[in-house]
Amino acid sequence: MSILSVCLVAATPAHSEDLGRYGNLWSIEEQDGVEQMIDKLRGMEKDGSLRKLQEKYRDDFVHRMENPPAIAGISTAQENRSYLVDPSIVTSEPVVNADGAVVVPPGTRINPFDYTSWSKAVVLIDARDEKQVAFAKARIEKHPEDKIILTGGSFLKLMREMNVKVYYDIGGAFTSRFGLTRVPAIVSQEGKALRVQEFALGGEKP
């Protein structure tokens, strides 16, 4: 067969034709996956296991919220100490605008206090220590505008006790950013730097 003949055969339109029915036919018996899941959930609902699973999930979630993991590397202050921390960052890559023009070259040192300021102090405590909780309560009583950040313990429990917003240092983001390792501590702005004050309980008052 020539190449031309092959091309003509390939180009010939195909027509469907009823070839009849051969052999036995059976309906598909396999159950749809979604239907299987629904049936299983209905069965769990009937025998009460679905409710138990939902309650366990709820209890586990509440437990994790009430008892988040403590931030690693944070210890209790053993002496009163005060020091300054430079909050500046150094850009590792260029910062460009919408047009692609470089507005901040790499290696630029940026101090956020050149553009903003803190009007409040941050009180850092481990709420598993009742002395530190008392420390925070005394501080907030004098300075209600301050913010409390926990490095351990239940922020939900402390919020209920104090009726103020309490935050948690998730993943150690705040403490690691500024190299904080001891609590209780108070962090506040001093000029273009952060003043960190650590308090040995029983010593200087907040």
Structure report:
The structure is a single chain. With 206 residues, this protein is α/β, with parallel strands linked by helices. The protein has a domain at 75-87 and 117-198: Glutaredoxin (3-Layer(aba) Sandwich). It has helices spanning 3-11, 33-47, 49-66, 130-142, 155-162, 173-178, and strands at residues 75-76, 81-85, 89-90, 95-96, 102-104, 109-110, 122-126, 147-152, 166-168, 182-183, 185-190, 193-198. It has a six-stranded mixed beta sheet, with helices on one face. A two-stranded parallel ribbon has the order 1-10. The protein has a two-stranded antiparallel sheet with strand order 3-6. The longest helix is centred in the first third of the chain and has 18 residues, at 49-66. Residues 1-12 have low confidence and may be disordered.
Topology readout:
Layout: H1 3-11, H2 33-47, H3 49-66, E1 75-76, E2 81-85, E3 89-90, E4 95-96, E5 102-104, E6 109-110, E7 122-126, H4 130-142, E8 147-152, H5 155-162, E9 166-168, H6 173-178, E10 182-183, E11 185-190, E12 193-198
